[in-house]
Amino acid sequence: MTKSNIPNDPMILLSFINTKLRDFYSSLDELCDDIDCDKQEIINILKAADYTYNKELNKFV
To answer: What is d(CA 10, CA 13) in angstroms, rounded to the nearest whole number?
Structure first.
């Protein structure tokens, strides 16, 4: 999926990304830069599962 070892399943990916955003990162850009993953790919996968990134909340909702 991406260069980093992140989950392929959308629901597990959602949990993984939101946990990382909550606990370690102030933005999706920062998270993606740090773990070397494709931001747009994550957005697309989670959008297909009806989740969108909320910048103000810093999580997918």
So the answer is: 5
Mean pLDDT of the chain: 93
φ/ψ of 10, rounded to 5, equals: -55, -40
| The model's pTM | 0.89
Cα first-last separation, the chain: 22
Residue 22: other Cβ atoms inside 10 A: 11
Phi-psi region of 5 (alpha: psi -120 to 50; beta: other; left: phi over 0): beta
Nearest to 13 by CA among 28, 26, 34: 28
